[in-house]
Amino acid sequence: MRVRPSFSLFLSDDFQLVIPQTSQEAQIYMGSKIIVTCHLTPEICAIAMQIKWFKETDCVCIYKNGHVIEGRNYKDKASLDTHVLQRGNVSLHLNNFSVSDVGDYYCQVISGDRTQQITVGDR
């Protein structure tokens, strides 16, 4: 059992966005569900933050004030798992993966006056 220190749940403006490193490429199948992984470090609560995901210039989804709003082209396709935001997990979930979903994704997290952003893709 891993015990999380209680201070990790407090909001902090001192954070970075990171992409977990994997040693092998994932197999992705058309029609499957994929997760575009992204986390805050240190592991702090993101519930009170604003989270924006884009694919190139298209808005995929926005999390703000406890609600996820899907972009126009991503209705019933994009989501965030709001249950893991308290652990700093801001990963994007995409349902029914298709060829048009291949590409770079851009995540922006805003907390107070601090904004962090990162690009996740097949670089």
Automatic annotation (TrEMBL):
Kindly name one Pfam family recorded for this protein: V-set
What's one GO-annotated cellular component?
external side of plasma membrane
The UniProt keywords, alphabetically, are: Immunoglobulin domain, Membrane
Q: Which GO terms describe its molecular function?
A: signaling receptor binding
Tell me which Gene3D superfamilies the record gives. Immunoglobulins
User: Alphabetically, which GO biological process terms does the record hold?
Assistant: regulation of cytokine production; T cell receptor signaling pathway
Cellular compartments annotated? Membrane
Instruction: List each copy of the Ig-like domain by range.
Output: 5-119
| Record has rRNA-binding as a keyword | no
Name by which UniProt lists this protein: Butyrophilin-like protein 2
Q: What is the lineage of its organism?
A: Eukaryota, Metazoa, Chordata, Craniata, Vertebrata
